[in-house]
Design a protein that fits this description.
The protein is an all-alpha fold. It is 61% helix and 1% strand. This is Cytochrome C biogenesis protein CycH.
Length: 316
Amino acid sequence: MAGDTDKTAGGTNSKAGWVLLGAAALLAAGSIGYNVLGTGDSGTATQGAEAGEPTLDELRAAAAASPDNAEPWAALGFALFARDDYEGAAEAYGRATEIDGEAAVLFSALGEALLYAEDANAPDADPMPAPALTAFRRAVELDPTDPRARYFLGVKKDLDGDHEGAIADWLDLLSDTPPGAPWEANLVQTIRQIGQINEIEVDQRIAAAMDGRLPPMMAGGGGGAAAPNGPTPAQIAAAQDMSQDDRDAMIEGMVTQLEARLENVPGDLNGWVMLMRSRVNLGEADKARAALERAIAANPGEEQELRRQAQMLGIR
């Protein structure tokens, strides 16, 4: 990033801003694999059929047939975003938020789609378009813990020249991030990069934010095992050069591995929440609900907390 650190009076220029956004490629609302999906062929409507998943045509038909159900629209939005059709994703997520105006994850997904839909190469490109910012702010109104919205609101501060404020926000997010969460390594990398660019010491502050963290549900009295590990920095770097099929296979493998782990450690409440988040962000609402029911069956004494977490994810 060092070559992209030209500054304007108001902070990082738009090019540096977009580099910063690119550094968050794997950040999501708890999704395993998230934007590892992000460079697929935008025209392959039959791509999913080969893997037994719905095609884009099928997803569009399901959404069109569901004027009062946000889930098919969210699934369509995820699929379009994965194929770099950000305008289409924003439209689908926008429809989902119109149907369900209380799901924070839908608003943070909408904000990101709107952000990436902005043409970064246009002379008047806005690295944080107002509609995207509005969506992120709505997401944190609904769920102050939404990591994607919190991250991008920090990006807004950095773009406005408040680098210290952005780093402080990201450190707060890091302190709330369960150890091994899928976005953890990427968040740390972003903090270090922006600290280096702006000559702000961050290493000791990162260590302090990470010291003594407990996964949120463990802090509330549930769970017993540590959260499963997310992708390492090396895996993240390697994912950028993968083909679409290889990325899909990696993501599915990570989710499958998590499910298998939970069979052996069913008391890991954080793992169940991570699995539910992953299924939601993969557009697999039925599997997300099934994960909730399995988590409750394994941990009946934690049903209230599990349902609370599921509700924040938009699982009904």
